[in-house]
Amino acid sequence: MLTLKEAGLKGPPYLAPFNAHIDTGELLVIIGPNGAGKSTLLGLLSGFHCPDQGSVHLDGRCLSHWPAKALAARRAVVAQKDRPIFAWRVEELVTLGAQGQVSQPWLHELDLTSLAERSVLTLSGGELQRVMIARALAQLDGPVLGTRYLLLDEPTSALDIGQQQSLMRLLRRLTRQYDLSVICVLHDLNLASSFADRIWLLNDGQRIAAGRPDEVLRAQQLAHIYRAELEDIPHPSDRGHWLALKR
Amino acid sequence: MNHVARPCSSTLPSPWRPGLLAGLVIALMAALLWSACTGALGLSWDMLSGNANATTWQIWWQLRVPRLLLGLGIGILLAGSGAAMQGLFRNPLADPTLLGMASGAGLAVAIWIVMLDGATGSLGLYGQFVAGFLGAFGVGLVIFAIGARAPGGNALLTLLLAGLAINTLAGAGGGVLAFMANDQQLRQLSLWGMGSLANALWPSVIGLWCCALIALWGLMRSRNDLDLLQLGDFTAHGAGLDTARLRRRVVLATALGVGASVALAGIIGFIGLLVPHALRLWIGPGHQRLLPAAMLGGALLLIIADGLARTLASPAEIPVGLLTSLLGGPYFLWLVLRERPAC
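^ inputs. structure came back:
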């Protein structure tokens, strides 16, 4: 289990310390306005940022005490900005950091089989985003015991709505099917509402709300934080509600 | 979450990979043989194996063989360092001169020649060598210290800017030294600055290869990590890469190799930039293949260039650095004009 114990950063970037844990098989979505500290929190959870106070633990062991390779078998990240510079073949890139030659199933899962021989420099933003997610999943694909954690920073930012839906469905299915938890930064509040098990809301480096989507995604609270005029729309199913921007 | 579990490999095997490396090795052997037999005095295998007189044997053993080994070592080091630097900086135009290592080594050697007036005997032989090594190593330590103080995401940009500043300072320092130098020192400086393998002697060749073996060990050990680094700092860290350790290892190995090379042969340009650049177009960016291929390719190019340098204006000799620049400059322009930004 991934646990934060009063973990925070004095900054910059600043992140107020808080306690939390991420359960096995959970799809956790982190939301918040630009500059709220979402990517910084993802860096803290992955071990990229060392906390200035408190600590982050995986299975009771501080992240900084994990051997890098053992930790890489348990958690993978997909960054928002990192793009390959050189002309890797898609299939080659997906094996980088993988524990074995496990690219094919993940290329198939993310509908990339037809692109396997293409240079990553010729891909669209959305295609590249899916390649990087396939690579992260291939990295976690191994015989290691214990919950795997997939950390994604805005994985749907370049995807069309069809691709967004299939990616979120895939992530949700993987969390149910395997010993995997997904921690995902999203800007699309309705996507978060539809797929998240739990949502953390961040603002100014502080986690100000955490809970089920229907508990966190309240128009009044979000309107204040995002400085936007929002209204709640009842969800066709009984799963919370959607949020719409007022004209 | 366990489709297949097989031994780790960071790049897919490629059907022509053994063929490419074997082809480069064969071409390198052929170039070495050709270069060993050509020069102001043509030598054939018959002359060496059968009725070699003392002079012929001495030319072969005291001049040609050390020169070939020097060219081999420097070609391997320059192109290997260039490939590693391009991978480290995730920039196809990076090479050891970018970080200021070559100019740092050059400045130290210029200080040795002008301020300390060379020196003769064994001190002169090793002094220049040690000066170059210390110059590159000093620059390596400075940029490493600067990089370590920079916040994570800006570390590489900070290193590049530090390299730019060091290059500018070294250029200015070299200018001041040239202004202070007497005629003989000026000639020595300018000949050395053009790059040449003419100073090959057994002791210096052995010194170079000692540095080369350590540097090559450091570079070859980094090939998997350099592949991971191509994912970007954050993603690579998530994939188990210690970026700080990789950066330290590659910078130190490169400083060692480039410092030793510059001290003995001056600044031989374009090999560290163009060989990895050209080979990456051909075999892809994976360092498992690229590093050894670039090392072989660098040695091949330098051995051929040095052979030409010795024969084109025979019995006079053209500095090999001029030839590599003459070959490399147009190729580089061609690459730029093709408008393929990355390869």
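The first strand of chain A starts at residue 2 and ends at 9. The first helix of chain A runs from residue 38 to 46.
thumbs up if we can close this ticket
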